[in-house]
Write a structure and sequence with these properties.
four-stranded mixed beta sheet; 449 residues; alpha+beta; globular; 11 strands
C-alpha cells in the first residue's frame, strides 16, 4: 500500500497552462521526471529557474555558500502582508542580527522549559477530542488547533482559549484558506513601488492578525518593564539584546517575528501531524506500536521524550513523505555553473524537499512508508544528504528542535488515548497552499481506547 501522492502533469505544457496549474497546486503542476532529475531548467519571459535535486549542489546552496544564494524576493511577495520584515523573509546583515537575538530562545536548555506547556496543549487536545469519539473528524482542523495552542502556551503563556489568541487563530485560518503559496509577483518583475496584487481579504486578515499580535506584544513589554513577565519564549526574545549592537527588537520587529513563529510553528506543525495521523490510520500496526510506547508519558516529565523513539521515527518518515514546506527558493547573486550548465545572475534556484525526499536515484522505495529505514545504511546516508524538512545550513529553521519534540509528543499523546481509522472513499490528495495540506481535508474516524 503506497501513501497518496499527487498525479504529475504531462511533460509538455504551455507557459499559460503551467501558470494555471501552478496557481492551483504547486505539486501536481510538476512532471514525473523531476523525481529522477538531478537538475531541471524552467524558462519564462521574465526569469529562469532551476530545480536542483543533486545533493552536492543543494549542499553548496544551503551550507557551503549561503550568502551567495539569498532567499528570493519573488517568493516573499505572497507573505509580506503578514510577515513584514520577519526572519523568514530577510537576508544579509538584517537576517543575521535577527537570528542572533532569536536563536538563544530555542537552545536545548530552553526547550526543556517549554515541555510543560507542550504537554498541557496535548492534554487539552485529548479533552476536546473526547467529545467526538466514534465520529469522523477532519484532522487538519484538530491539529491546527493543537499546534496553535502549543505556540500560544510556549510563546505567551496563554492557552488557545484566551480571547486574543482565539482571534489570532480564527483570522489565521481565514488567511491560510485565501493565500496561495505564490502570488503573481512571483512570476513578474514588478517594481517595489508598484502596489502588490494581494486580495482585499488577504490584506484585511493580515492587518487584523498583526493588530492582535501588536496588542499581545505591547502588553508583554509592559509586564517586562514592571518585572512581572512570565519566563516564556516571548520574554526571552524581547529581553535578549543583539550581542554585537546591544539592541533588542522594538515592537514592530517583534510583531514581525511573532507572525512567523505563528506561521512556521503552527501551520507547518499542523500539516506534519495531520499527515502522520493519516499514515497511522493507513498502517494500524504502527499505530499500535506507538500507542504502547506512549505509556512512557505516564511520568509526565521531559525525560519521557527520549523514550518516544518509534514516534520520532514515524514523525521523521511523515516529514519525508509530506514535508510541510515543499519548495524553497534562492536567487543567484553572480553567474554560476551547475552540472555543466551556465546559470545566470538573478536566476531562481528551487530546492524541493518534496522531490529530494522522493529522489528515485537516492532513496530505497522512496514512495513507501517505512519508519525502519532510518536505521538502514541507505536511510542514514539519505538523512545526511537528501533530507531537509527544516532546510539546512545557517538558515535551518530555528524551531527544528522544538518541532521534533512537539510532533512526537502530540502524536504519542493522541495515540495513547485514541485509535484513528481510515474512512472509505476519503483518501486525501496532497496539495501545496502555504504548506502541504490535503485538497479536501484529512478525514478519519476517531475511537477512544
Amino acid at each position: 500500500m503506497i501513501p497518496p501522492k499527487p498525479t504529475p502533469r504531462p511533460d509538455k505544457v504551455t507557459l499559460w497552462q503551467y501558470l494555471k496549474l501552478f496557481r492551483k497546486d504547486l505539486l501536481s503542476a510538476q512532471p514525473q521526471r523531476l523525481y529522477r532529475a538531478w537538475m531541471a531548467e524552467f524558462r519564462t519571459p521574465f526569469f529562469r529557474s532551476y530545480l536542483v535535486n543533486q545533493p552536492d549542489v543543494v549542499d553548496t546552496v544551503l551550507k557551503q555558500r549561503p550568502d551567495d544564494f539569498p532567499k528570493s524576493n519573488r517568493i516573499s511577495e505572497g507573505l509580506r502582508p503578514l510577515l513584514g520584515n520577519s526572519v523568514f523573509l530577510t537576508n544579509g546583515e538584517t537576517w543575521k542580527r535577527q537570528r542572533r537575538i532569536i536563536d538563544p530562545a530555542f537552545e536545548g536548555g530552553r526547550l526543556r522549559d517549554t515541555f510543560p506547556a507542550m504537554l498541557g496543549a496535548a492534554q487539552a487536545c485529548v479533552d476536546r477530542l473526547r467529545d467526538q469519539t466514534g465520529t469522523v473528524v477532519e484532522c487538519e482542523e484538530i491539529t491546527s488547533h493543537a499546534a496553535a495552542d502549543v505556540i500560544f502556551r510556549t510563546l505567551f503563556s496563554v492557552p488557545i482559549e484566551d480571547e486574543v489568541a482565539a482571534q489570532v487563530f480564527d483570522k489565521f485560518q481565514d488567511y491560510q484558506r485565501q493565500q496561495p503559496l505564490l502570488n503573481l509577483a512571483a512570476f513578474m518583475p514588478i517594481p517595489r513601488r508598484v502596489p502588490r496584487l494581494h486580495s482585499r481579504t488577504t490584506r484585511r486578515n493580515a492587518k487584523d492578525i498583526r493588530a492582535l499580535i501588536t496588542r499581545l506584544t505591547s502588553e508583554r513589554a509592559e509586564l517586562i518593564a514592571k518585572g512581572q513577565a512570565p519566563d516564556d519564549l516571548a520574554t526571552k526574545i524581547m529581553t535578549t539584546p543583539d550581542p554585537e549592537t546591544g539592541r533588542c527588537f522594538d515592537t514592530r520587529e517583534m510583531v514581525d517575528q511573532v507572525a512567523i513563529f505563528f506561521l512556521a510553528g503552527h501551520e507547518t506543525s499542523a500539516s506534519a501531524l495531520a499527515w502522520t495521523l493519516y499514515l497511522m490510520a493507513l498502517y494500524p500496526e504502527w499505530q499500535e506500536k506507538l500507542s504502547a510506547e506512549a505509556q512512557a508519558l505516564d511520568a509526565s516529565d521531559f525525560a519521557a521524550v527520549s523514550k518516544l523513539r518509534l514516534s520520532r521515527d514515524v514523525f521523521r518518515e511523515a516529514l519525508r513523505l509530506y514535508p510541510p514546506v515543499p519548495m524553497m527558493v534562492r536567487e543567484t547573486t553572480c553567474p554560476e555553473h551547475f552540472r555543466g550548465r551556465d546559470v545566470p545572475t538573478g536566476s531562481q534556484i528551487v530546492l524541493s524537499p518534496w522531490h529530494l525526499h522522493r529522489q528515485e536515484r537516492l532513496w530505497n522505495r522512496p514512495d513507501e512508508f517505512d519508519p525502519t529505514r532510518w536505521s538502514t545504511e541507505n536511510g542514514k546516508s539519505c538523512q545526511r544528504k537528501a533530507y531537509i524538512p527544516f532546510s539546512a545550513g545557517p538558515r535551518v529553521c530555528t524551531g527544528a528542535g522544538f518541532a521534533m519534540i512537539e510532533g512526537p509528543l502530540l502524536l504519542s499523546t493522541l495515540l495513547r488515548h485514541f485509535r484513528f481509522e481510515v474512512v472509505e472513499g476519503r483518501t486525501p490528495v496532497p496539495v501545496a497552499h502555504l504548506t502541504v495540506r490535503s485538497k479536501d481535508g484529512i478525514w478519519l474516524r476517531v475511537v477512544e481506547r
